[in-house]
Each structure stands twice: as C-alpha cells, then as structure tokens.
Amino acid sequence: MLDMAPSKQAATWLSSLSCAVEAGDVEAATNLFVEDCYWRDLLTVTWNIKTMEGRAAIHDMLEATLATTKPTAWQLSGEASADEGIVEAWFTFETSSAWGQGIVRLQDGRCRTLFTAMSDLKGFEERSGPARPLGVRHKADPDRETWAEARARETRDLGAIEQPYCLVIGGGQGGIMLGARLRQLGVPAIIIEKNAQAGDSWRNRYRSLVLHDPVWYDHLPYIPFPENWPVFTPKDKMGDWLEMYTRVMELNYWTSTKCLSASYDEAEKVWTVEVDRAGERITLKPKHIVFATGAYGPPRQIDLPGAEAFQGEILHSSQYSSGEKFRGRRVAVIGAASSGHDVAVDLWESGAEVTMVQRSPTTVVKSDTLMEVGFEIFSEDALARGITTEKADMIVASTPFALLPQSQRALYEVIKARDAAFYDRLRGAGFAIDFGHDETGLLMKAYRTGSGYYIDVGASDLIIDGEIGVRSGVEIKSLTPTGILFDDGTELVADVIISCTGYQSMNETVAAIVSREVADKVGPCWGIGSGTRGDPGPWQGELRNMWKPTAQEALWFHGGNLALSRFYSKYVALQIKARMEGVATPVYGAPG
C-alpha cells in the first residue's frame, strides 16, 4: 500500500473504513488507526463536539454510535497529497440523518488523525444556490403578501403572537452570526441586545480599537467582506458592517433589550424568559436559549486594598471609551495583555502620562511576523492557491487540540529567532516576556485562558522608547490616596487607575440570569483542561462547554473571536435545528 499514489492510498483506506463500519465490525475499523491516533468529530457520529484520543476511545465511540448513525458512502473529494510521509485527503460521507465531510491523514497506511464534520441535515438543508427562495409568486393575486409585508408581519408577531424556538442572548458578532445561521435553517429566533444599535458593542469601545486579526480570518457567514476591505478592520467600520448584516440577513434583532431572568421547566421542556425591551417587560417562551455574550462573562474586578482611600478615578477597561478626558493626567493601566496595551496606546495618543503595571509575563508577537508565519492559510496568497476561508476553517478544525502544542512550539521557535532583537529591546525596557509555560505561544494561551498575550500593533515601540512606562516584577500592596504602593516600598503616583484585568467565565452570566445552581451545574466555559494556571484539569480535548450540549438541557454557549464564531455558529445552529425537527440526537460523551 505504501507504494501507491497518495489518492490511491487514501481511497483504499476509506474503502476499508467504509466496509468495516457498514458491517458493524468495530475491531476492524479500529485496526485501521495507528496507536497514537485521534478522531475529532463535529456532530456526525457523536452529536457532540468531541475528540476521541487513541484506539480504545475510538473503539468505544464506534461501539456506542454505529447502530444509530450508520455512516456510509465514504468518497474522496479531490486529489490526496503527501508531505513528509503523511498522506492527506479530503472526503465526503453520509450518516442516517446528515451529510458530512472530513479530512484524513495517514501515516504508514494507517490513520493518524481523522476529522469529520456535519455539512447539512438530510431533508433540512439550507435554501441556497439552486434551492434558493424564488422571492415572488408569478401570478396575479388580490390577496398577495409582498416580501416586505411578510417580513413586517414576522417582525410584529414573533415574540408576541408566536414564540421563538430559540432565544439568543447577546447581539454582538457571535449572536449575529448564529442568528444568520438559524434563519437560513428556518429556525424562528430572536436575538436580544442591550445596546441601542447592532454593532454598538464595537462602536462603544475605545476610539483607536482595530481588529488585530486580518480580514481573511474575520469574514462573516454568507456575506464576506468586499475586496477593498482593509486588512485590519477599525471598530466603527466593524460596527457598521454588523448593523448592515442584521438588516440584509433579516434577523429578528431586538435592540435596547436586557434579559432579566430565565428559568427552565424540565417537564414542559420550555424556558420562561423575562426581558426588558426599551422599558416594556415581555415574557418569552423559547425551547432553547443560547448565551452569546462574547467568549467571556462579566468584567473581572481585582481586589485593590485601600481603594476607598484613593482620591482619583478607578475604572475597568469595559468602561473605557476614550483617553481624551485623561489628557495631561497620570494614568496607571493594570494589566499587560491586549486590552492593557490598546488602552495604554489610546491614552498616550490622547496626551496622558501612562504607566503599565504588569502583574505577570506577556506573550508578545509582532503583527507583521504573525501575518507572515501564523496566518499563512488566511491570506491573499492562500486564496491564490485555492484555499478559501471556508477551506482554511476546515484545515484548522481538523487538528486535534492535543497536537497543537507541538506545532505551536515549533512556530514560536521560528518567531523568537526571527525577532530576537525586538524581544531583547522589550526586555531591556523592563517588560517581562514569556511564551507560555511550555513555550507554545499565543494560540495556546488563547485556547487555555483567553489571556496573557498581545499582537503588537505599535505599543511595544512606545514601551521600548520609554513613552509608556512599565512596572513589572513587583506586587501591588495597596492603593494610597495618590497612587499605587508596591511590595518593594515604591509608589506609582496616579490620578487614574484603569484595570485591564479581563472577564469572568460566561457561566457567571448564567448565574446572574438563570441561577447559581445552574451555573455551577454547567461549569466554566473556555479552556481545554491543560492544567496550566487559569485552565485547570481534567483534560477536555475540546473547549469547555462551547458550541455543544451542556449539563443544562436546552442551554448553549456560543462565542469566540470572529473566526471561531463564524465556523462554530454553523454547528450550534445544526444542533438546534435537529431538535426542532425531531431528528434523533443521541449525544455521545459527557457534557462540558
């Protein structure tokens, strides 16, 4: 088999897998994998987002799921490739209820990693392409209802005469993308947003905020950014795009609406949700609720002893919008990750005297470097090679979390060597740098804790040049009337203190809206259980509670950056659609 061309090897392996699973021969199927193997599945055979690690785990999964999922018709799509002894091939297949696609990587003729993902539910495919709606009835009709009239009726009735099947709490990028996915699947949904307009979650941030990720990585589903869109999107432009998107995608989007409380009737299988919509109290009865309040929950406030004695102003970065009012004032920024850097730059540009208080080392990567070596498959060059954003998403998703540290460690060895002089200057300015406890860099910090990193878009040069001061390696002992006292006895004089200390888990939002009991039952969101600080074990192999069933029936979490929200919104929507249509969804694996 090893003498065969890559496509022949892949086709032979797929045929062997197909024969084994269709015969229900779990042993034969398992023997097609190497010992150190991984199968990552998005809904097709597990109705879960789950990675099986090792033959034994794959054996147990197949034994539990084959009888109901009945995967079949495994076919190569395109030509396979080979690189350093690894054969990679894309394929399609189907199950009893869905169409699927995936990527297999073979090592010495056996499978090292297998990735399977649901494309569509059978009989409930999105109405797009050849199946798009006609938009008009080609005949005279005195009772004709135009598209606009039907849309107005839906807007008027949903939430009043008719109940949404799904309520999405949070109308930022994640809620909007999920709303678009649900609408394309015909799931009646309402998105509620506390701000006055769609996009305000971006517009209301500090004036200099710009996305640190490039445009190819940040597209929304169905409507990509136009060809002349800037590589790095300014916040107000992003806000305007989101507002446009909600209108064009015809989302049922309630602005100036706050969720007051929610409770679930386990017998009736329905939520009772109280919302305040522009001063009017409304009761909704959705079957499912999705918390889409960002990747995180409420702001994390740190304890600052002596805060009551401080004579200046203290605020969290979530309350910060502009440095203009701090012109000429001495400002201490507590926190040295992304928000801390961005706020510090905005303050400096506004004429404030800024000092960053760094409580722990930060992973810093130059934007130009990351663009060249870290976003290779999300780029104009990638598009020229036929790697669309959709294909790049699949490539990223096909790598199990357990294998990421090895590749990321190798990437950061390249980055550290490439930018060694830059890191030396930054350390020389008193700034503490690390690349994670295991030298795996920014991406693993993002997955593990969502904190502790910065993509440099200008702040580092200000730190190197002394324009932004740094206090690192000392602990805050207490606040004084005039500033911050450190444990080495020194004091930083400040008129204003801004805490850029991040956010709590999204389950804390559940605690405030549903109950502490339900929040604790569900557990924290995000993190993979790496055992590192802020990401306690046990090992999960997937992000905790994100985009999949939780310990609370009919309660879901959706969030992440634009790329993660774009990709995983599809799978949240498919799970909810399946339940709405009565498709059997036996979930394999414990929630969480």
UniProtKB/TrEMBL annotation:
Which key words tag this protein in UniProt? Oxidoreductase
SUPFAM superfamilies for this protein: FAD/NAD(P)-binding domain, NTF2-like
* Source domain of life: Bacteria
Q: Fetch the Gene3D superfamilies from UniProt.
A: 3.10.450.50, FAD/NAD(P)-binding domain
> Where in this protein does the record put region Disordered?
126-145
**Pfam families, per this entry?**
Pyr_redox_3 (PF13738)
Q: Sorted alphabetically, which PANTHER family does this protein's record hold?
A: FLAVIN-BINDING MONOOXYGENASE-LIKE PROTEIN (AFU_ORTHOLOGUE AFUA_4G09220) (PTHR43539)
The entry's protein name is FAD-dependent oxidoreductase
Which species does the entry assign this protein to?
Mesorhizobium escarrei
